[in-house]
Amino acid sequence: MKTYIRSAVTISPQKTFNNPLFLNELASHNDNRLTCIEPDYSEAIDPKLIRRMSRIIKMSVASALACLKDAGIANPDAIVTGTAYGCLEDTGIFLTNMVQEDEEPVTPVAFVQSTHNTIGAQVALLIKCNRYNNTFVSGGASFENALLDAIMLLTENNTANVLVGGMDEITDMSHIVLNRLGLYKRQPVSSLNLFNTNSKGTVNGEGAAFFLLANNPSPNNLACIDAVATFYKPEDIAEIKQHINSFLVSQHISCNDIDLLISGNNGDVTSDKIYAQVQQLVFNEIPLINYKHLCGEYPTSTAFATWLGANIIKNNNIPAQLNNSNSPKNKINKVLIYNHYQNIYHSLILMSSC
Amino acid sequence: MDNAVFIVGVGVLSGIGNNVAECLDALEKGKAGIDKINYLRTNHRDLLPAAEVKLSNDELSVICGLPSTTSRTAMLSMIAAKEAWDNSGVNKLPALRTGFVSASTAGGIDKTEDFFTHFLADKSKGKLRDIINHECGNITNIVAEKLGIKNHISTISTACSSSANAIMYAARLIKNNMLDAVIAGGTDALTRFTLNGFNTLLVLDEQYCKPFDENRRGLNLGEGAGYVVLVSERVASLLKQRPYCALSGYFNANDAYHQTSTSFDGDGPYMAMAGALTMSGLQPKDIDYINLHGTGTQNNDSSEGTAIQRLFHPHYPKMSSTKSFTGHTLGASAGVEAVFSALAIQRGIVYPNLRLDKPMVAFSFAPETTFSKQQDIKHALSNSVGFGGNCSSLIFSKL
Q: For the segment B363-388, what is each residue's pLDDT rounded down to a tens digit?
């Protein structure tokens, strides 16, 4: 079913929030950690509340409220979020406290805010939204499941619009741990040069992105989301091809109908080899752009990709700095996002002009 | 879209038993699973009772076939999900689109706790194998892979209502013709993180909890896992045995009142129950049994009770909180209680609410205090209320 993106807001490692211009200049990060460019929250959130909120809660709540405002919706029919890690900072604070104080932690605040549904709950609380509220914590398919839930809700009764978001944060501790797992580049890298490094590892990323999805068109829609699909641990490239083909068939389109592919390449040679093979085998000749040099790699990065796709369709233009090799000649009507997270979670999100 | 969804398999383990038969036996005999903490390493073991699953990690490992170094949350999940899957007979049918939707609040944090003790002292220390399955989603993946389920795997975390939302999502994936059969429910192990968290909130009872009692003092934590197997009408017709019941109604609402407490008037639980009734096309008087959220805290029981009074007065169904047996199993609780509700319908039984000495004076109803058989339970309602105002109710109906 076609669903309409009425508004899309993200806080990301780029200047994307409160910026009427679409990626007019790119921020370069010279570390293996891309940190979000955060706004002054006092305009968006009551300062009394800000003090208690962790960074991921602030980024998410500010994005969610701005998204509702842009859409002109005071109270949505549902709030659905997807986050792999949840509120890591609060989890770390409470765990540290518990270990260091030998199980006599003094304050419940971090514990209370560590639950994965805190963001959806905080938004509901701030706008007094009594409607459907759900949170997916499905690793690299968290945002995709939130999107699927939203699309299903819009086909079911009594739901005209859904606020849906994906978010994950980096904390100092999580970055140390994920670095030890060998996920990131060992040498300093300029993020905008990520795809020329030809080495192992990617760069750590983070962000919060929210969308107001509606089941009816309105004058200011950015784009449509036609469908989302996920598949888990494919055996080989042939199985990936099979999943992509059946997805396209289910949408009654062929590869040639796709004007732009947004690809989840992350600069890690092993991971990117899969994209290269899939591109050669399935998406040959389709204009392609990458996005993870802008936001880094994290489990819900497809929320950023969806924001990117929506704006490309709306503007019918790919920002010059995205530097794609073969630009689409015609109007950009259909955009497909293909991402895999560590070759465990693969996902497809099909977007189109309205 | 209005196709019915049926429950054709159940699996559970909790403080009162390691499978459906053992749990039913304890429920009938009135034997609570709450005791002095025996398995979890915690300084609070002599002060705070809890309903632990009565198996060590090594013993769980032998039963579930996962390495004993696996998060306890995954091992509990594996045992209950496998029991439900085997019980359903669905795995014998060929070429179905199958899914696993599991809920958890703790995920692999039991292992993260071990990691952190070493990591905090030296950031290069702590075994990485103890941290790689920290995420709730990883716990679900471990079990899905062992069960051989691949078409759909997802994880939900909405605090104490998590597995009710997992069951709803599973039903909707079937109704939207994306899947044929789904194992849905939740799992949570008792961890120091949650025990200390609830302890700082001052909501834990140092004695055995007394849900819906005037003199209730708080909740006891529990651990466990509970899953139901949901199938479409077509799949149900292919199975030899009759379904336990249908999932006839569900509703998710948000109380939007406070991060950790429920509104005085019980708006969230009221909307969840009323919404589920509307969906199932039932009137309050049609409900024969309510499996209460009934944690035993001042706030929950008074808020949930008010919501029940608003909706059901003056015709109250039988009701009980089985958390008086199992403790509060958090993200697993709605899964455990969905199994108990399905069994209540299938077997015509009503469970007692243990340790009820003085029913709450504010209400003109009181939970059941004895186990009863030969009851005609046509419709059972199960409530869940969680942090963040997340309230979900499920209605199970006899066929």
A: 999 999 999 999 999 999 999 999 99
